[in-house]
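quick one: 4'-deoxy-4'-aminopyridoxal-5'-phosphate bound model?
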Amino acid sequence: MGLQGNQTADWYRRAAAVLVNGVSSQFRYWSDDDTLVVERGEGGHVIDMDGNRYIDYQLGFGPIVLGHGDETVASAVAEAAAAGTTFAMTQRREVEAAEKVMEALPWADAMRFTNTGTEATMHSVRLARGLTGRELVVKCEGTYHGGHDYLMFSTASAHPGELGPREHPEVVLSSKGVPSAIKDYVRTVPFNDLPLLEMLLESEGDRVAALVIEPMMGNAFGFMPEEGYLQGVRSLCDRHGILLVFDEVKTGFRMAVGGAHEVFGVVPDIGTYAKAIGNGFPAAAIVTKGEVADGWRSGGIFQAGTYSGNGSSAAAVRATVDRLLTGEPLARIEKVGKALMEGIGRILSDHGVEGRVTGHPSMFSIFLGSGDPKEFRDTARHDKKLYEDLCMRMIPRGVMPCPDALEPWFICAAHTDEDVAKTLEVFEKSLGEALESK
Ligand code: PMP
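yep, here:
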């Protein structure tokens, strides 16, 4: 028996009759009797078709930063929807939203909206290639930058065992259907390893257009950059004339209002933002240093999108970023995240479990394994089975992280102190049972 109650199972059957595997996005499918169907979200909670309420730590894989159904965002979107959302012209709400985004990101000189993180990273790679006249891109092993062909290699869905020697990594295709020739344009390096990046760039740096990197590994346990790593990456890019793209689709407007620049003090050439920028509405942005945007302005590099900057998404961005700029929501998130990270760490050590809580209070993961993991290859030491078993015991008790520990627990400003207390209680009970049945 899986996670579905009777009503949810009925709805899942209806879903599967019309949507492939009952989902609109591959990551949402767990199994035929574990895939839930949601009735609604409320703050930090999600409610399924049987009325079961869960403390939601998936938060849509990160976008929900204020809480599900946040009233200010919902009313801004409703008002925008009634005013007509999509025009073949720039609109007021789009300008107001862009002004808010630029206010939050003081390093930035120019931007354009898109709708998804995938579009944002795809256009960034094209922009970098067009500007530099070079064709190679470098990415880290274990990062995911969206579903387009450019970067669908060695993502977190690869197995660390497939990646070959660290010094000469295999570039692993993450989906059938991506032309194998595209692999020739991609180079991969382990995160947090400057010497290997330096070695790669010494030999091929003059052919590299962009280095696309998540400032912390938002798709692999939330591993943080080591002291000086991002600064080193910046200076290697400068040395070789490579554009540095920070993919902040997960970190942006979540780890800090000003994202990685605010936290680590490193300025990229291009930043991609999505998810938390619109609290769950489809909005994303490509943000650049001034001269980079000339690629669109006058450099013959194509970027477009029918719904880019649409009124309802723009209204969501404006309302969300406006709230985030007060500092309150992220201060709350930090407090809740820290309490959970500390509490979970304590429970692991009380139960003699080898492991640690990795990441940032706004998005953290639980690594069940030895040592001090800092890059994707280290995830081979994580006890995936124990973690999954633990999650499958927590979810029926009303606490819902993603059962894949690569995907962090996300915190929103609507999570309450009671949520924290209940989560720690359920975590401890479920861990005890999972260890017993191991
Ligand atoms: N970049 C990163 C770092 C992501 O985590 C994701 C999605 N999880 C994407 C890009 C793609 O974003 P989207 O799903 O909005 O296309």
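The chain has a mean pLDDT of 97.
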